[in-house]
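Annex B. Sample input.
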Amino acid sequence: MRRLVVVLVVIGVLGFGTSRGLDWWNYNVYTPMAQSSQQVVFHVDAGELPLQISEDLYTQRLIRDRNAFDLYVRITNAGPKFEAGTFLLNRNMNMAQIINALEHGSPDQLLVTIPEGFPLKFQAQYVEKSGLGSAADYLAAAKDPAVAASFDFLSSRPATADPPLEGYLFPDTYLIDRTVGVKELVKAQLTQFGNVFSTALRSQIQQATPARPAESIESMVILASMVEREANKDSDRGNVCSVYYNRLKIGMPLGVDATLLYALGRLTPEPTYAELQLNTPYNTRTHAGLPPGPISNPGRAALLACINPPQTQYLYYFADRNGVTHFETNENDFERDKQTYGVSGS
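Annex B, continued. Sample output.
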């Protein structure tokens, strides 16, 4: 009803034809700037006027027409309701949704940004830096069965998985009320994982393609977690995952040193010769098949790269001294190119 009343008022105010006015209004108020998710951190200072807010929204490409914003604010009397604070907006929100969000801010909200590709214990360090809670509190929340009880995509996780949510705590930027703390952050991360790895995608991975076999959610997350640690660029992710599929198909060990580093509890440097001899299922040089669980928390690009990889014959890859990843189909070319281009870190 509110929307209908607003539209009728605007039509009368615009005064340049019902059809044209309605199109202009719907386009500017109810059509987002982007169809895909593009998060934007937005600040409103105490006492900031709606006119300045509209200018900032326009500058950050959250709205396309300041006049439409100002008109909507006047008609709905939203201006006096705007809250000061930090807001996590998105360019796939329409203007009406953005205005509604600005009316419901909280001074107790904190931004927590967690980069892609870090194991849980390293994510905890980012949480602690945000001020939301200690690393220990975050790790404890991630082990609380009650926090994860309602997320059905966790059903493929082994009951003995430790930590139980490794790989599923989606890296992103979150706006969390400090009064609810780290448990709410863990729930938000699981919710975002479910949004990105949607029901449709979960159904899709159960069907084999020419480039990959049918997979479980757990296997797909494990693969994506390795890609996240190994691929330097988004454009390389699909080829990296194709190497893993090709090796698994013929029973060839994956040979991913990042899995061994996970067992060693560090991100760098590369394993020593002695460490490469360790007898652990995370040593994918000596143990065939996937490691026991994810080795990082992958982002959207890594997940999609493993869900829809290119069909290749690659069995080898390496990053050279300039950070360029080379892919090869046989060991001879692999060794030749390492001599030609050098290997990263050597």
